[in-house]
Amino acid sequence: NAGVMQNPRHLVRRRGQEARLRCSPMKGHSHVYWYRQLPEEGLKFMVYLQKENIIDESGMPKERFSAEFPKEGPSILRIQQVVRGDSAAYFCASSAGTDYGYTFGSGTRLTVV
Amino acid sequence: AQTVTQSQPEMSVQEAETVTLSCTYDTSENNYYLFWYKQPPSRQMILVIRQEAYKQQNATENRFSVNFQKAAKSFSLKISDSQLGDTAMYFCAFMKPLNNNDMRFGAGTRLTVKP
Q1: Closest of B108, B110, B97, B104 to residue B26, by C-alpha
Q2: DSSP 8-state code for residue A85
Q3: Below-70 pLDDT ranges, chain B
Q4: Rg of the Cα trace of chain A?
Q5: Among A71, A81, B39, B49, which residue has the least CB neighbours within 10 Å?
Q6: What average pLDDT does this structure show over A40-45?
């Protein structure tokens, strides 16, 4: 079991470009969560998805950010027209929907230049 | 909304000694879960310990134990016999196991274990 796989590990984008972050949950996990971590801060909840459904997107900025978890393939967090303030580490976590906590990926560090 | 507060941005401890990290939370729920996660320089988030609110007994995992005070909404982490490898950011987290199961984190405490 490879755990939660996130790629890329590092991503550099110029202002105005699009960033696509991928997350493959652990085998058997159907719940995916995205968190953002700014430097020297804790993790901030962004969105919670199950297969083909967004369950809670209360932490997502209303513009430029979107997330999906298709029936086949990884979950994608998309940031359009990136700005410098989007520079952060983005973590994906998955769970089986039980209450044993999450398994986190290693994160994607996005740098906007 | 649930909030999690870690009032100690940084702490240090000598190797082999004991250190306690504080966490308080605010909720109107009666049933919930609390966690401590460790984030070493590798940035990987590692689950350290988990506590169910309905259990009065404090959770323990080897050198890690918690002091869970439900009435006071306090959930501190005690690390005994500190090791250099314990140097990391430690995050307290709250999870309400209802519709969305999402987990809310505190701002973290940076722990440094000194040789």
Answers
A1: B104
A2: G
A3: 1-2, 98-101
A4: 13
A5: A71
A6: 84
